[in-house]
Design goal:
The complex is a heterodimer of chains A (777) and B (70). By secondary structure, chain A is mainly α. Chain A has a domain of 160 residues. Chain A is 63% helix and 5% strand. A 4-stranded antiparallel beta sheet of chain A has the order 3-6-2-7, sandwiched between helices. Chain A has a two-stranded antiparallel sheet with strand order 1-10. A two-stranded antiparallel sheet of chain A has the order 4-5. In chain A, strand 8 and strand 9 form a beta hairpin. In chain A, helix 9 packs antiparallel against helix 22, helix 14 runs antiparallel to helix 15 and helix 21 packs antiparallel against helix 22. The relative contact order of chain A is 0.08. Chain B is an all-alpha fold and 70 residues long. Chain B is elongated and about 60 Å long. The two termini of chain B are 30 Å apart. Classes of the chains: A mainly alpha (777), B mainly alpha (70). At the A-B interface, helix 9, helix 13, strand 12, helix 14 and helix 15 of A face helix 2 of B. Chain A: Belongs to the V-ATPase 116 kDa subunit family. Chain A: It is found in: Membrane. Chain A: One of its GO terms (molecular function) is proton-transporting ATPase activity, rotational mechanism.
Chain lengths: 777, 70
């Protein structure tokens, strides 16, 4: 059922169920958050054996809120722990590397000390300044106290770090850096960065503050370090123990989070589905209006006539299931609004109906061009594509799609694949017809075959001397099915085929346009529009057929009699000088008279299309308004409904602007008259594309495959074959298919449909839970 | 085989096709009508195409002139 918005005049926020929709939106947000968390943790929502427990929406809301709070807390705790863990790891590294450095430095220092002592012993009491120096060295209180800062700095900033430290302390510092081989996880950013352990020695308070600031600026993490060797070992042990403890805590935290997410995962799909359904139900409820007593909801909608009993059954079931005391009332309303259009299609016809709907959805109850499109669209495609080899390739491809239909329809395919898969039945029809027209044009990858009997042409004499100058002669009756195979590759092939295909295009075009005009007759008869029958259908039919129907007749007569008449000449002089003698352009006796008659018919059909209809419409309108009309039953019904004040939408303009109607009719007439010429010429694209296809195909065959064959070298043959395959698939099977598809589509949408199609309806799109899933995805 | 004979063959093929479609898958009046329309349209289209090409070759005004080197 398609619901109509009754609350269209209220803003979205005033509507009754706005709050409910907000709640559903909140819940949907929480579910999305869970979904993201689950993808981050690599947990996919599994479908546990679905226990169809009915979940109340309020309970779900509370539960979702709790779960969200819990997850957020677990996440933030996890992050804090992880950060501390990384800091400890870094600290451990600092302890190790700096410890090594101090140890080796100590070794050097003791060695130097021993040297100096040895030196001192050797020198004795000769130099007092030396003694003084020594004393100074030995006196710890007079020693300048060196402080140091140890930590980690990222490798890429190490050079800049060193330089700035040097400049800031005016060289009064000593920096020792040791690179760490493996990258370390930085506690702040959480990424793995290559770092260096550094130790900076400085003297003085000011230097210390400067160095600390520089460390902060460079994001170098500082860690305390003791000089005492014993304490160092103790620190290392302590840090190692803390690290292992933290690791266990973090692991436990992760397991806890994963279990929460898994629990969510079991019911994720179900919750998602439920929230989406509730939201859409509230959206639909918003379209209803509250009754005056505020006790019941009123809904207006469209439903197909055949489904009336189903709707009533469903309403009864709903009343029963919800234990309500008052049943729902289902009543058929009469309205002047135009209903939506609904065509029941199956998987085969739906693609063709979509092609028609893409141009415009049919007005309610007008003739559906889709019926004919199922056959004529692939047929016109095939006229332009005509090669049974290519047709077989297309058919195989599309059969693959059709055979694996069930599997592919549940998968998610890419955009182009999706379109190709959706149109698989269209392409199948196109391929079948292409095989047929390919057999008629006698082209198999541009190679003709003598499949249907012997060719009609042979040499004049046994020596075939003048085969290249005078040509062959027709010795047998015409080739029974299709184009004679002898034509291919001859010098006169193109003139013959061009003439054939152009005349074929005209004949097919006139046939399709006549079909369109006849459909307009059926439309007019159905809607009981006599004006349209007598003052639109009849003159249109006469005009089109007296000109182009006559041309088609001339073509057929010329073919049957083999006359040499020039049809261009005949048609043009039919207009320019109709009373002139035809001479050698005469195809049948009485032609001149016939032409005069047809010309006169065409000339009077133009004002016949133009004038009577507006005048009669005006007369009808006047009669209606003077209440004198007895003829049309519709008008009395309309008057009754006016009295009841039933329909809120007006039924058409009550004013009748004669000039407007006349101009409308004038435009329609001009469009038809000029369109008769232009549309007929437009059908010549059937010739143009089929010529292009056959020429391309023969070029690829002769200039690639035969050329490669001529070299008698297997490698060149293989390369030539591969190039031939790629060219055929890329240009002929893909590009030409798309091109012919497009042109056949245009011929249908414009030349065929503008003869009868209104196409200003709207589609019946009923509310459906099944479509929800597709919408969200 | 002659124009009329082949036209008759096409006509008979159309009749056979519509009968077989009706007999094998009967789906209610409107669906049957749809299928009948489709079969008739297809037969008419195929016949038209064949007839046009056949008639064009009945009494040709030009003949194949072979190109050099054939």
């Amino acid at each position: 059922m398609l619901p109509i918005k009754l609350n269209a005049d209220k803003s979205p926020f005033q509507r009754t169920y706005a709050n409910q929709i907000k709640r559903c939106g909140e819940m949907a947000r929480k579910l999305r958050f869970f979904g993201e968390q689950m993808t981050k943790a690599d947990i996919s929502p599994s479908a546990m054996p679905v226990t169809r427990t009915h979940i109340d929406l309020d309970d779900l809301e509370v539960k979702l809120g709790e779960l969200e709070a819990e997850l957020i807390e677990v996440n933030s705790n996890g992050e804090k722990l992880q950060r501390t863990f990384n800091e400890l790891l870094e600290y451990k590294l600092v302890l190790q590397k700096a410890g090594e450095f101090f140890y080796s430095a100590q070794g050097h220092a003791t060695a130097q000390q021993r040297e100096i002592e040895a030196h001192q012993v050797g020198d004795g009491s000769l130099d007092s300044p030396l003694l003084l120096e020594q004393e100074m060295l030995a006196d710890p209180s007079k020693q300048v106290k060196l402080g140091f800062v140890s930590g980690l700095v990222p490798k890429e900033k190490a050079m800049a770090f060193e330089r700035i430290l040097f400049r800031a302390t005016r060289g009064n510092m000593f920096l020792k850096q040791v690179a760490i081989d493996d990258p370390v996880t930085d506690p702040v950013s959480g990424e793995k960065v290559g770092k260096n352990v550094f130790v900076v020695f400085y003297s003085g308070e000011r230097a210390k503050t400067k160095i600390l600031k520089i460390c902060e600026a460079f994001g170098a993490n500082r860690y305390p370090f003791t000089e005492d060797v014993g304490k160092q070992m103790q620190m290392i042990d302590e840090v190692s123990w803390k690290i292992s403890e933290l690791k266990t805590t973090i692991d436990v935290g992760l397991i806890h989070r994963d279990s929460i997410l898994k629990n969510i995962g079991y019911q994720f799909e179900q919750w998602n589905h439920l929230v989406r359904r509730e939201k859409s139900i509230y959206h639909t409820l918003n379209m209803l209006s509250l009754d005056v007593t505020k006790k019941c909801l009123v809904a207006e909608g469209w439903s197909p006539v055949f489904a009336t009993s189903q709707v009533q059954d469903a309403l009864q079931r709903a009343t029963y299931d919800s234990n309500s005391q008052v049943g729902s009332i289902f009543q058929v309303l009469h309205t002047n609004e135009s209903p939506p259009t609904y065509f029941q299609t199956n998987k085969f016809t739906s693609a063709f109906q979509e092609i028609v709907d893409a141009y415009g959805v049919a007005k309610y109850q007008e003739a559906n061009p889709g019926v004919y499109t199922i056959i004529t669209f692939p047929f016109l495609f095939a006229v332009m594509f005509g090669d049974w080899g290519h047709g077989i390739c297309l058919l195989l491809t599309t059969l693959y799609f059709i055979i694996r239909e069930k599997k592919l329809s549940s998968q998610k395919l890419g955009d182009i694949m999706e379109m190709t898969f959706g149109g698989r039945y269209v392409i199948m029809m196109m391929a079948i017809f292409s095989i047929y027209t390919g057999l008629i044009y006698n082209e198999f990858f541009s190679v003709p075959f003598e499949l249907f009997g012997k060719s009609a042409y042979a040499c004049r004499d046994s020596s075939c001397r003048d085969a290249t100058t005078e040509g062959l002669i027709k010795v047998r009756p015409a080739y029974p099915f299709g184009v004679d195979p002898k034509w291919h590759g001859t010098r006169s092939e193109l003139p013959f085929l061009n003439s054939l295909k152009m005349k074929m295009s005209i004949l097919l075009g006139v046939a399709q346009m006549n079909l369109g005009i006849v459909l307009s007759y059926f439309n007019a008869k159905f809607f009981r529009n006599n004006l349209n029958i007598w003052y639109q259908f009849v003159p249109q039919l006469i005009f089109l057929n007296s000109l182009f129907g006559y041309l088609s007749l001339l073509i057929i007569v010329k073919w049957c009699t083999g006359s040499k008449a020039d049809l261009y000449h005949v048609m043009i002089y039919m207009f320019l000088s109709p009373t002139d003698d035809l001479g050698e352009n005469q195809l049948f006796p009485g032609q001149k008279t016939l032409q005069l008659v047809l010309l006169l018919l065409a000339l009077i059909s133009v004002p016949w299309m133009l004038f009577p209809k507006p005048i009669l419409l005006k007369k009808q309108h006047q009669e209606r308004h003077q209440g004198q009309s007895y003829t049309m039953l519709q008008s009395t019904e309309e008057m009754l409904e006016l009295d009841h004040g039933h329909s809120s939408h007006g039924h058409g303009n009550e004013e009748f602007e004669f000039s407007e109607v006349f101009v409308h009719q004038l435009i329609h007439t001009i469009e038809f008259v000029l369109g008769a010429v232009s549309n007929t010429a437009s059908y010549l694209r059937l010739w143009a594309l089929s010529l292009a296809h056959s020429e391309l195909s023969s070029v690829f065959y002769e200039k690639v495959l035969l050329l490669a064959w001529g070299f008698n070298n297997i490698i060149i043959l293989i390369i030539g074959f591969i190039v031939f395959i790629f060219a055929t698939v890329g240009v002929l099977l893909v590009m030409e298919t798309l091109s012919a598809f497009l042109h056949a589509l245009r011929l249908h949408w414009v030349e065929f449909q503008n003869k009868f199609y209104e196409g200003d309806g709207y589609k019946f799109s009923p509310f459906s839970f099944a479509l929800l899933a597709e919408d969200e995805d | 085989m002659g124009f009329l004979v082949t036209t008759l063959i096409f006509f008979l093929a159309g009749v056979v096709a519509s009968l077989s479609v009706r007999l094998c898958c009967n789906g209610g009046p409107s669906i049957n009508l749809l299928r009948f329309t489709l079969v008739v349209t297809a037969t008419v289209c195929c016949w038209m195409m064949w007839a046009i090409v056949y008639l064009a070759q009945l009494k040709p005004l030009i003949v194949p002139i072979l190109s050099e080197g054939e």
